[in-house]
Design goal:
By secondary structure, the chain is of the alpha/beta class. About 35% of the residues lie in helices and about 25% in strands. The protein has one domain: Ribokinase (UDP-N-acetylmuramoyl-L-alanine:D-glutamate ligase), CATH 3.40.1190. It contains 10 helices and 13 strands. Helix 4 (about 145-155) runs parallel beside helix 5 (about 175-190) and helix 8 runs antiparallel to helix 9.
Length: about 325
Amino acid sequence: MTLRLPVTTRERAHALAASFPSAMVLVVGDVMLDQFLIGSVTRISPEAPVPIVHFDHEEHRIGGAANVANNVVALGARAEIVGLVGADAEAAVLREALAARHIGTTGLVADSSRPTTRKVRVVTDRHQQVARLDYEQDHEAPQDVETELIARARSLAATAGAIVVSDYLKGAVTGRLVAELGAVARSRGVPLLVDPKIPHIGHYRGATLVTPNHHEAEIAAHMRIRTDEDAREAARAFRDRAGCDGVLITRGEQGMWLLTQESEGALPATAREVADVTGAGDTVIATLALALAAGATTAEAATLANHAAGIVVGKFGPATVSVEELLAVV
C-alpha cells in the first residue's frame, strides 16, 4: 500500500508564507553564470549539418547555487551566498546580477586559478537549444581558498534560519566545509539541507535532509526505482549510505518520496506541463529550506516544494516561483 503524506491546507500554507520575509537562508556551493545567445534559425549551414542561428540578443541568468538563492529571494525571504568565482569579467557580471536581486555577495571568494563557472547556451527564439559551451574548472578549492570559504560560511551561518549546500562538483564543496557547516547547524538547531552529487556522498553525514534526484538515488542505492515501494527502499538505502537524517527523492513525473524520522510517504507530481526541468532541483531545495526556516514540518516543507517544482518546470531555463504563484496552487 502506498504511503501518502498528510495534506497541507491552504490556511497553513498562508501562515507559513507570512513568515518568509523574516527568514534568511544561507546557500553554500557552486555558483554559475548562465548565458543565453538567442536568435532565429531559417536554414542549415552548407559547411556542416548544423543550423545557422541569426543572433538577436543575449541574456544572463544566475545558476547553480546562485539560482537556489535566487529562488529563496523570489519567495520573499533573504539569502546569502557562499561560493567560488574567478578573477574575471564574468565574476563581475555574476556579482552585479546577485546584487540586483538583493542576494548578499560577501561570501563569494575569488580564486584566480579558475574561471567563473559559465554555461553558454545557443538557443532559438522558440526555446530550442542548439549547443552549449561550458567554461569551468572542477578541481577542489586549494586549502587557503577552502579556509576562506569556511570562515565566510561560519560567519554568515550565525544568523541563518536554514543552511543549504548546493553541490555541482565544481570545487567549492569539500568534506571539511560541509563538516563545519554541520557543526554550526547542530549548535544553532537549524536544518542543513544538501542537493547532492554521488561522488561526494560521504561528505553529507549528519545533514538534516538530502535531496537526490531519481537517477542519483538509483546509483547510491544500487537498484532501479520503478514503484513507490522501490522509492521507499532506495530512500532507506541512501540514508544509510550517506549517514544523513532524512532523504527526499525527486522523481520527475512520478513526484517525490520523503523519508524522515517523523514522516514517510509519496507526493504525486503536480506539473500540468513540462517546458524545461533546468534548475527544478534548485527550486525544490530553496522552498524546502525556506519553509523549514519559517517553522514548517518536513512533510509540510516537502509539500510546498513539490508544488513549487510543478510550477517552475513549466518555465524556460533556470526560473523561480513567487509566493503568490505557490499559494495559488496549494
